[in-house]
Amino acid sequence: MDAAKIIPLSAEEEMIHVLAREFIVDGCAGIKDPLGMSGVRLEVETHIITGSSTSIQNLVKSVLRAGLTVDEIVLEPLASSEAVLTADEKELGVVLVDIGGGTTDIVVFHEGSICYSAVLPVGGNHVSNDIAVGLRTPIAEAEKIKIKHGCALSRLVDDDEYIEVALASGKESKKVSLKSLCEVIEPRMQEIFTLVKRELDRVGPRDLTPAGVVITGGASLLTGAAQLAAEILELPVRLGEPGYLNGLSDVIDNPVYIKKDDTVPKAIFSTAVGLVEYGVRYHKFTSKKKVINNDVVGNFYNRLKKIFSGFNEWF
User: Fold this and answer.
1) What is the DSSP code string of 254-303?
2) Other CB atoms closer than 10 Å to residue 43's CB: what's the count?
């Protein structure tokens, strides 16, 4: 693994992950763990992920200024996969598409390990910006409209449905048909999934991922997003979210995110929950008795709530 790290990198790049795909002992491939085996020659096939040094440094500085420390940089979809994918899906072959604010991240799992990853420079913020321009409304208002009324397929919306939209001045409002809103959102979502399809075409035949596609992240919650993705990607698609956690509505109490049943869509927490799981799995959180601290997740959400409480005024 150390030898695999010796690759030429530019001064602007930094290595984030060196992930083992398989080990090869004396020409025998497909070995997940070679410990205990006998052989003369040991080889490893790795998937190496690099990132911009400047972006990484700025990210670390932001976290430090928030009063936290950084143990490790983790690729976002790799963290999300810990929370939303099953071991069977990873082994069978699955695609995870994490539609974040500024980017859409893709990882492809095959036989339990990552075989492909990509980051697309388009995400949910671009959808909000399209709404702001198309409906002539402030960005903050566009974000609210996207969350409460957004739909990725205009054919799923009736022509006689209308919503109230604040004008750019913030002093007046107007009625806009819901179909018009969806006709603004749909082209951008089509673009995102078309770019994802282009990346998947580079991976190889579709039979490498028989478990289909799992979409997560904020923009994946748009009505019809999974249906649109299935039509474009020509694979079965499901929404991925950490389904075993409760109390997430206590972390973000902004009414924009809360559904009628007083719950918050868990897909927006996929990366955060995945980071906790990643840390517990690959790092040793120990107390004086050398056991895993059961309050790791609870303490994390207490901190998360404090952080988000300062952002409520933005909405």
Assistant:
1) -TTT--TTS---GGGGHHHHHHHHHHHHHS--B-TTSSB-TTHHHHHHHH
2) 16
pLDDT digits (tens, 9 = 90+) for 174-197: 898 999 999 999 999 999 999 999
Q: Give yes or no for a contact between 218 and 276, defined as CB atoms under 8 angstroms apart.
A: no
pLDDT single digits (tens) 247-301: 666 666 565 666 555 566 778 888 988 998 888 887 765 444 444 444 555 566 5
| 83 secondary structure, DSSP code | H
Give the CA distances from residue 190 to residues 227, 230, 279, 312, in Å, rounded to whole numbers and listed in that order.
11, 11, 34, 30
Same domain, 152 and 233: no
Give tens-digit pLDDT for 20-41: 989 999 999 989 889 999 999 9
Residues 93 and 242 in one domain: yes
Contact 81, 42 (CB under 8 A): no
Q: What is the pLDDT of residues 92-103, one digit of tens each?
A: 999 999 998 889
What value does the mean pLDDT take over residues 36-49? 93
The verdict on 107 and 239 lying in the same domain is yes
Same domain membership, residue 217 and residue 107: yes
Q: Please check whether residues 244 and 306 belong to one and the same domain.
A: yes
- Print burial letters for 265-294: b (CB count within 10 Å at least 16), e (below 16): bbbbbbbbbbbbbbbeeeeeeeeeeeeeee
pLDDT at 169: 76
Q: What are phi and psi of 174, to 5 degrees?
A: -145, 160
CA nearest neighbour of 85 among 283, 273, 309, 280 = 273
Distance (Å, whole) CA 141 – CA 134: 12
pLDDT digits (tens, 9 = 90+) for 83-137: 999 999 999 999 999 998 889 999 999 888 898 999 999 999 999 999 999 999 9
Domain that holds residue 146: 124-181
* CATH code for the domain in which residue 137 is found: 3.90.640.10
